[in-house]
Specification:
It is built from two helices and eight strands, in the order ββββββββαα. By secondary structure, it is α+β, with helices and mostly antiparallel strands. The protein has two domains: 88 residues, no CATH class; 31 residues.
Length: 141
């Protein structure tokens, strides 16, 4: 199956089969599942989600799309607007991958929050200055 892509400001109410709707403003790529089950697939563009590659003619999404919550459980890559099907994964494999992805996501945001907290603290903490600092203390404060 080959998709066409459309860059949009807003995702339309009716999602057409075979179309990748790309909203850069909202960081989302939506499409109907290519297996034909009729489910709408949202691939959010985030540091821990998908990334989109646009070469001026076609779109690729990385990593693969695994529709584990759908009955079809379809799994595929979208490369240069083309669907490349993957093998079906067992429920056990899906569970293991989800645990790893959840852990990686939590660690990413925990580290990001720590960095932001450090940045916020360094911007907001002001060391008290005393009029009676020694010349040695003045070197460091």
């Amino acid at each position: 199956m080959k998709f066409q892509h459309k860059f949009v400001d807003f995702i339309p109410d009716l999602i057409e089969d075979g179309v990748l709707y790309i909203s850069l403003e909202y960081g989302a790529v939506l499409h109907n599942c290519p297996c034909g089950c009729g489910n709408e697939v949202n691939t959010p563009l985030t540091p821990t989600g998908w990334r989109m590659i646009y070469n001026g003619e076609a779109v690729s999404l990385k990593p693969s799309v695994g529709n584990w919550s759908f009955d079809c459980k379809s799994h595929y890559w979208i490369t240069n607007n083309e669907v490349e099907w993957s093998l079906k994964w067992s429920d056990e494999t899906i569970h293991e991958v989800r645990v790893v992805e959840d852990s990686e996501r939590e660690e990413y945001y925990r580290n990001k929050d720590s960095e932001n907290l450090d940045d916020d603290l360094s911007d907001s903490i002001e060391l008290p200055r005393s009029k009676t600092l020694s010349w040695f203390q003045k070197l460091f404060f």
